[in-house]
Amino acid sequence: MFIMRLLLRESLKSPRRTEQEKLFGQRRRRFIVKPRLQLKIAFIALVSMTLAGAVPFGVFYFFAVEELVKFNHPRIQMLLGRVNYALLAGFAVSCATVALAALYLTHKIAGPLYRFQKSMEAVGRGDLTHTVKIRKGDELKDIEISFNEMIKNLREKILAGEKLLAEPISETEAPRLKRGEVADGKAK
Question: Structurally, how many domains does the chain consist of?
Answer without folding.
Answer: 1
